[in-house]
Amino acid sequence: MMESGKEKKSFKSDLKGRLAAIQTTRWVRFGVVSLIFFLWVIWMGNPWLALIWLLLADIYITQFIPWTWWKNTKGTTRVVMGWVDAIVYALILVYVIFAFIGQNYKIPSSSLEKSLLVGDYLWVNKALYGPRVPQTPLHFPLAQHTLPVLNTKSYIENPQLEYHRLPGLRNIKRGDIVVFNYPQGDTVAVKIPNPDYYQICYDLAQNGVPNPKAYIEANPEIFGEIVYRPVDRRENYVKRAIGLPGERLQIKNDSIFINGEPIAEPTNVEFNYIIPVNRRIPDQKWIDLGVRNEDHGSEPMADLSTGELFYNVPLTYEMKAVVEGWEEVAGPLVREGQSGKYDTSSGIFPLGGPYNWNRGNIGEFWIPQRGKTLHLTLDNLPVYERVIRVYEGNKLKVKDGRIYINDEPNEYYTFKLDYYWMMGDNRDRSADSRYWGFVPEDHIVGTPMFVIASFDEERGLFDGKIRWNRILRDANPDNKW
Question: pTM of the prediction?
Answer without folding.
Answer: 0.88
